Amino acid sequence: MIKNPQYKRVLLKISGEGLMGEQEFGLDLSTMEKIAKDIKDVKELGTEVSLVIGGGNIFRGVSGVANGLERSSADHMGMLATIINALGVQSVLEDAEVNTRVLSAIPMATVCEPYIRRRAIRHMEKGRVVIFAAGTGNPFFTTDTAAALRAAEMNCDALMKGTQVDGVYDADPKNNLDAKHYDYLSYKEVLARDLKVMDASAIALARENNIPIIVFSIHTQGAFMEVINGKGKFTVIGNSQGD
Q1: Residue 216 belongs to what domain range?
Q2: Smallest Cα–Cα separation from 130: which of 139, 143, 141, 117?
Q3: C-alpha span between 162 and 225 (Å, rounded)
């Protein structure tokens, strides 16, 4: 294994749905173990890794609002779902002998550490994987925005978006075999074409801090390590020439 990663410090964003496997709800252990192995391999390359995990496999705030819940309450329920996922991923990573810390934007002292920026950076410098839970700690913000925010706060070289497909397409590749894969997009193009890669505030935050967003398939074994080395199939979202 060549220890010369293209990125020295990254944040990996995984949706809650990415942990479900073939299930319709909850956590799939085998899927989590595969993701943990990929994270461990990247760690062994020498890259510092942090994570933000969504909560949609347990509860989605937007769905709660659609069913009549008040928005702030629904969003806080979604944040608690991300903490459940973070603790689950931490357990699997620790089983794989990867030292991990969960830092929550909602203080929960008996369960995990509170989010403190300098503490998080220190954990990463010591070689630990840091999982940021509870989003930004505020309603009306998605975990995509939390991922962009934490990537900026941690001075990450890139924000890795692990999805169900191997990059960004102009149509759903699962339903359209002629869908075009993009190797590179600018932040402006993503917003103008409404490509739904991440929400607009997350894209804007990444652009403001010049953090490239790398979109790849989290379910392709070894894809995370390939992307770290600049190989494999993925989409890079960054500044267009002249921006």
Answers
A1: 9-238
A2: 117
A3: 12
